[in-house]
Amino acid sequence: MPRINAAAALQISMLLFALPAQYFISQWYGTDSAERIQITERLITASWSISTRSYLSLDAWANRLKLWLSKTRQGEGIRLKDTIKEEGQNWYYGENKTKSGDNEAKPHSYFAESTHVHSPKPEYIKFRVGQVIIHRRFGYSGVIVGWDVKANTPEEQLQPRYPPVKQDLKYTPHYRILINKANSFGKSTAYVPEEEITVIMGLEVYHPDMETYFSGYDGSKYIMQPWLKKLYPHD
């Protein structure tokens, strides 16, 4: 439940009792004792009614909590995007460009979008198409829809992505990810090195292109559509 600081409590108290107090003062003087008792009773009843509706109501606090959570999530999303930008990790977070039924040969496509058959599969490729992952640093979840044995992207984009101390990462497996829309990450796809992700089971992914790539979910991984299975026969 959101906390109320001293200043907020004071403002609430002033708003709560301002109008009843004004009415009480105007009515108190010039009345006999019986009328004063009635006025006091009405004041107490009205104040209690306002408090019950506004501050002692579970529905009222639930609405405040929802508003607070909404603002918190928006703030976290902004901070996450700022962090990605500042650290140079926005090398490839973009919109998905693969369309359903797009089986044209693209042997030189970047970002694990090549349509050549990935066979044989090297033993050092740790993950498989259809597995659900979580990004180790940024926390978003997603599903793998493709992989490359090493970073497959224009060289001019590799340089800002991998400074000299991280040059070795260029030669490690990279995976194309459909990002779970439930994370409100702001981007739909990612292309990341193997060391930045870890597999998780029992988590479903929501993305508008899921049916393009997969026919279902068995609790541990997504089942590839026939066209995708042809490209990754060993996954």
TrEMBL record:
It holds the Pfam family YccV-like. Keywords: Signal. This is FBX21 protein. Residues 1-20 form the signal peptide. One of its GO terms (molecular function) is DNA binding. InterPro entries: Clp_protease_adapter_ClpF (IPR053189), Hemimethylated_DNA-bd_dom (IPR011722), Hemimethylated_DNA-bd_sf (IPR036623). Residues 124-225 form the Hemimethylated DNA-binding domain.
